[in-house]
Specification:
The chain contains 16 helices and 15 strands. It is α/β, with parallel strands linked by helices and 394 residues long. The chain has 2 domains: 240 residues, Queuine tRNA-ribosyltransferase-like (TIM Barrel); 105 residues, no CATH class. Strands 3-13-12-11-10-9-5-4 form an 8-stranded parallel β-sheet. A 3-stranded antiparallel β-sheet has the order 6-7-8. Helix 8 packs parallel to helix 9.
Length: 394
């Protein structure tokens, strides 16, 4: 359980992403009705547009976007560096080339890292900006989220190990500066609700680096910890385990950017508490639907004359009021309502899945629930493969 100024978060919990203070295509009320306990927005995007001062003038992120519950903001580190390198959300490229100056093919470098911070160009208009740990803390202070993250360098899987080592030390030093600035800003406004600051554990695929990062951050007085960075999906459970074995057991652990069902089971099994991911809303905008029997596309011909809900036994607003046939129609017609209705369903599905995992832990039948769900979602053969690799059904 995480207690914030705007409410309690029962853990484990999935946190929908409202990148620019909006979960794309849906009202905040729809996200709340779907069971979400909190939302996460991006400091980088809100800093550029509309500006952290404007959000502060509205009373902070929650008031600005009409969300009454707890809020998170990330530090801006991921967006500065991923957009700066031209990869957007994809930091793990399928290539044998390893480099210290990684840039996507056909892209210009928009961010330059040094030991003090990052100088970057806006992806909106090309204007130049500078983020340091102190700037990130000041921006997130203005945004006013309940839970914020320390500024870190997010590397890619194609950076060399030598670069990962240097980057890890840079992130460690930045974490200390973030903590000092966070405490300084809080002391200047003693009457404001407390913001909880999480340190971010990096280290890519390397066990020794992940453990070192966790040890370094555990020695600092953070309120919780984020597990970040690019990682190979097949190693997710291992990496989370390396980190959670070291981090304090009485502080929450947030896994950044993870939201697929098998990932959630693997991470929760190894001690992660909260998660955020754009996948439910992004997939919805592309017509992809979560269901207990696996993901499918609403544009498929089988849905044209199907008057069934998107998923059996789903009590989301969409499934209670709309059929696959209607949603197939509005998808094919490119009507905006399709993104709205599919997003409502997908967010409800993933939030509800994590709620069910929490209930299974409390009821003492997590392993059985995991087996049943993953066999139904991926099929017996896929679930068997996950069991053999120790990922998902360990």
């Amino acid at each position: 359980m995480i207690q914030t100024a705007h409410g309690t978060i029962e853990t484990p919990a999935f946190i929908p992403v409202g990148t620019k203070a909006t979960v794309k295509a849906v009202l905040p009320e729809s996200i709340a009705t779907g069971g979400a306990q909190a939302v996460l927005a991006n400091a980088y995007h809100l800093y550029l547009q509309p500006g952290a001062d404007i959000v502060a003038g509205a009373g902070g992120l929650g008031a600005f976007m009409n969300w009454p519950g707890p809020t998170f903001t990330d530090s801006g580190g991921f967006q500065v560096l991923s957009l700066g390198a031209g990869f957007k959300k994809v930091l793990a490229m399928d290539t044998a080339v390893r480099s210290d100056d990684v840039i996507a093919a056909g892209k210009d470098r928009l961010a330059r890292v040094d030991d003090d911070g990052v100088t970057f160009k806006s992806h909106l208009d090309g204007s130049s900006h500078r983020f340091t740990p102190e700037v990130s803390m000041a921006v997130q202070r203005q945004l006013g989220a309940d839970i914020i993250f320390a500024f870190d360098e997010c590397t890619t899987l194609v950076n060399t190990r030598e670069y990962q080592v240097r980057s890890l030390e840079r992130t460690r030093l930045w974490a200390g500066r973030c903590l000092e600035q966070h405490q300084r800003l809080a002391a200047e406004e003693p009457g404001r609700p407390r913001q909880y600051l999480y340190g971010v554990v990096q280290g890519a695929q390397y066990q020794d680096l992940r453990r070192r990062a966790a040890e370094d951050l555990a020695a600092m007085d953070f309120d919780g910890y984020g597990i970040g960075g690019a990682l190979d999906k097949s190693m997710l459970g291992e990496i989370v385990g390396w980190v959670t074995e070291v981090l304090p057991a009485d502080r929450p652990r947030h896994l950044l950017g993870i939201g697929e069902p098998d990932d959630l089971f693997a991470a929760i099994d190894r001690g992660a508490d909260t998660f955020d991911c754009v996948a439910p809303s992004r997939l919805a905008r592309n017509g992809s639907v979560y269901a207990p029997t696996g993901r499918y596309n609403i544009g498929g011909a089988a849905n044209r004359r199907s008057y069934q809900p998107l998923a059996d036994d789903c009590d989301c607003y969409t499934c209670r009021h709309y059929t696959r046939a209607y949603l197939h129609h509005v998808y094919k017609a490119k009507e905006m309502i399709c993104s709205t209705l599919l997003t409502i369903h997908n967010e409800h599905f993933i939030v509800g899945l994590v709620d069910s995992i929490r209930a299974s832990i409390e009821g003492g039948h997590f392993d059985e629930f995991r087996r049943q769900f993953l066999c139904g979602y991926y099929g017996p053969s896929a679930a068997a493969t996950l069991a053999e690799t120790g990922f998902g059904i360990g």
